[in-house]
UniProtKB/TrEMBL annotation:
This is Uncharacterized protein.
């Protein structure tokens, strides 16, 4: 099941950030991205 998620929630923070940036660069190339974070996994949103 975790293989189908964007990012493995058990990875190191540096790996999480690196994978997130790579994903966004690949899939949102040339588009605007809005991301809001506030400190908890349940309070993050991306549009």
């Amino acid at each position: 099941m975790l293989n189908h998620r964007l990012i493995d929630i058990f990875s190191e923070p540096e790996t999480f950030v690196k994978k997130a940036v790579q994903f966004l660069q690949k899939h949102a190339k040339g588009k605007k991205v809005f991301c809001a974070l506030s400190g908890g996994i349940d309070s993050s949103a991306t549009y």
